[in-house]
Amino acid sequence: MIGWVVSHFLTDGTVIALLEPSFTAGFLMSEKQVPIDPSANADLQKVDGVHEIADDLGYQRHAIVNIIYYGVPAESKWVLIDTGLIGSGGSIESTAAKRFGENVKPQAIVLTHGHSDHAGSLKSLAQKWDVPVYAHLMEHPYLNGSKAYPPPDPGISGGMAKMSLLLPRGPVDVTQWLRPLPEDESVPGMPGWKWIHTPGHTPGHVSLWRESDRAIIAGDAFITTNQESAYAVATQREEIHGPPQTFTPDWESARTSVQKLAALQPDLAVTGHGRAMRGPQMSSALDILARDFDSIAVPEKGIYVHSRDEMTREQSGRT
Q1: Rounded distance between C-alpha atoms, residue 176 and residue 133, angstroms
Q2: DSSP structural state of residue 218
Q3: 297: how many CB neighbours lie within 10 A of its CB?
Q4: pTM for this structure?
Q5: Residues 149-158: pLDDT tens digits?
Q6: CB atoms inside a 10 Å sphere around CB 318
């Protein structure tokens, strides 16, 4: 058994990974899916622990996951996208107070999906703020107490993949505040943005898109670090990476979702895990991921994985 421990400090997002020496080399040698140079980092500045990536957009790393603040700092209208892990609520409230003012609650909470690393503090924040929670209708069973997510894939290798087996799968019940995303694809409280259904990682996963600056909030449709590797998570080593492998049960839909997002040619991407990235290098790397998704992103084996030959035959049959 791998002898490793991961702990974190919510205020600054630091992750400390302690690895058994015999396994350290394996973590250090883990290959990137699509390498990307750190110069593509999208950060403009960092204020009160928030990485500013646009005038009205910032993200904050909470241990292994990002939460996102939409809204111009010091103005009263803002939206929270995802809520991090259980226990993140106090830090989110404190940051929001500094950013938007004391006792200024968001207009809404918008979820890319309901996994426990993205909705862990959802119920406590919804109770505290009493604001609507928006999610795709196909995600509602996991948020209204009626259904748990499928089990993680135990065949995925890597320290963080093993840790993820311990994460709760729900169900969460926020029925009192839960609302479907509007049918017209608008995003409540976020003018100029639209939601895009990007299933695969979960049935009701969505990404958010703004045409004016070609910005995308991708959730876990794709990410920018290797979430299976404790070393990559600890260092936030940059790469364009498919959805986290352990909790992705539908690889065919995941491929289609990445292809859909790559076709938009985003200039700025903030994802659920890893650093925000911008520019042509990021967009080109996303194109490569979309083009070669089966060989790059899909694990070689697992309970949700067809063989590579099967996937190739299936894809050839559709073209």
Answers
A1: 9
A2: E
A3: 22
A4: 0.87
A5: 999 898 776 5
A6: 6
